[in-house]
From TrEMBL:
It comes from Chironomus riparius. It comes from the Eukaryota. Residues 10-50 form the F-box domain. Signal peptide: none annotated. SUPFAM superfamilies: F-box domain. SMART domains: FBOX. This is F-box domain-containing protein.
Amino acid sequence: MSLINQPLDLPFELCEFIFDYLQTRDLLACCLVSKSWLDFFNNSICHHKILLSIDETAAMCDLFNCTRKFVRIKLNKLKNERFLDILSHFAACVEELEIENCELKKECNMKFPSLKCLSISSTPAEIIHKIFNNPCNNLKCLVLYRLNGPTIKVVSNFLKTNDSLEEINFYLDEKNNIFNRDISNEVTFKLKSLFISYKSDYDLPTKTLTNIEKFLKSQGDTLETISLINSANLRLLFRTWNDLKAVNRLYFFSSDPVLDFCPLNVTELNKNSKITELELHALGPLSLNLTHFIPFLNAAIALKSLGVWCLKKDLIEYVAKNFDNLRFISCASMDSDCLTFYNDLKSKIGINDKIQIHQYL
């Protein structure tokens, strides 16, 4: 608990919760009430929690007169000079920046010395090279979602110049697909977290899968968390598994009804003692069955958490007999008598009786 004066006679955390509901103009006005109110907003804890969301209705004078240095900024539906002026005002202090539905016609030479997280969505891709043409030396996280216009060249150039990146979230479609080309040899950073979502498996080109595979392998020494949403198939997981040296959480989701998979020898997958969370989800007529799971389960020897789309009795029995460290199974659906079946299994010798089963749909 901070010893700083609260603007209201309430606990610090509750004050934060209340002020987070305010619109931009009201939030800025609060900073001008008194020194104690300004101190509250400048407190190191509150400093990193309150998001300043700015749209076309925000008053420029209120923004520029406020002495509060907000570090979490969201710019929405801003265009050209207004967008550029507001962005320039916060460039020196912003640490988390969200840009959504914004436009800019001219290029600028701006630096963001403190920027750690950048998220751009529903915005022309050209904004990336118009604004971020200088390296962001402290940038750790990049999120790209539904960019407009050609993205491959501008995104690729951005990645080449920002070697401090540790986390990337790509939301792809046929128009915005950075993996239309092989970028594995173009980047110098080493990621810890990678999220790739494609709009549909049905439209996923083989070339894209191949380039995703190359990129995963190039980052395999450092990647700790991997999420592949409609952007992979089981064969790709087989081909990349042995290169993923640091991964501890692997999330796979496919809505492709035709799985590109045929059983391979279990010995082809190296034993991995770091993966503790494994989620394999698939929808469609050919949903995953035990034969699909076994190669990955047998390789993830330290597994503690397992996620599946449809939980069946044979899978419960297999993991209960073979995985003493497993503590949690999550699923969207399960056979009607799964829980009863597992409770009956617990009475037998050599069965893991500590597994919690959670159905989230």
